[in-house]
Amino acid sequence: MRMHLAPTTAHPTVAVYVSGPAGTDLEPFLAACRDYASERDWRVSAELTDEREATPRAPRPGWRAAKRFVVTGLARGIVTYAPPMVVSRGTESYSDVLDWVEGRAAFLATVWRPYEKAVVRDSVAERTGTVIAVDSVGGVAWLRATGGGRYWTTVPEALEPVGATGHP
Q1: Domain count of the chain?
Q2: For 112, how many CA atoms within 13 A lie in the half-sphere containing its CB?
Q3: Could you tell me if 79 and 33 are in contact, meaning their C-beta atoms sit under 8 angstroms apart?
Q4: HSE-CB of 38 using CA atoms within 13 angstroms
Q5: Both 18 and 67 in a single domain?
Q6: Is the C or the N end of the chain the one with fewer CB within 10 Å?
Q7: pLDDT (0 to 100) of residue 145
């Protein structure tokens, strides 16, 4: 399993990027990313957002701008709330995003981590469920449908919180 790169310089500048379905209030996610950066003494150079469309190839100007901040040196890394926010459905995997970041000697930081009993959306299976367990070393998350039923497994990077902030 791949690890996120950590910043190697003191007080790096970062771009904050979040996305969500049309009509979602993204401010709570931006605020959580802002707080995360502040706790680490990172400077935020930009706050960028996109509404996720139902079509896989919908343009994401906010994500393109976040990447441009890294390429031009205006940001050393990108902070996002949950891994699925930086993935373009059907055209780009989380692994592709990590390859891109690593290829530029930058870093990607995600604020939210799945935890036991969290209600989450699995972006791979396109189902909602409750986290039973997460093995971050092995890269597996076990989920059960929120109404009960059989469990299934997925990669932790495919999980995003359901609700305003995803915290208990």
Answers
A1: 2
A2: 30
A3: yes
A4: 6
A5: yes
A6: C
A7: 92
Shared-domain flag, residues 104 and 44: yes
- The token pair at 78 is 């990108």
Q: Residue 133 is part of which domain span?
A: 119-161
DSSP three-state, residue 81: coil
Q: Is residue 1 part of a domain?
A: no
DSSP string over 94-116: HHHHHHHHHHTT-EEEES----T
Q: Could you tell me what percentage of the chain is helix, strand and coil, using 3-state DSSP and rounding each to the nearest 5?
A: 25, 30, 45
Q: For residue 4, is it within any domain?
A: no
Mind listing the pLDDT tens digit for each residue in 37-71? Answer: 999 999 999 999 998 776 667 788 999 999 999 99
User: How do residues 100-155 score in pLDDT, each as one tens digit?
Assistant: 999 999 999 999 988 999 999 998 898 999 999 998 777 899 999 988 889 999 99
Radius of gyration of the chain (CA): 16
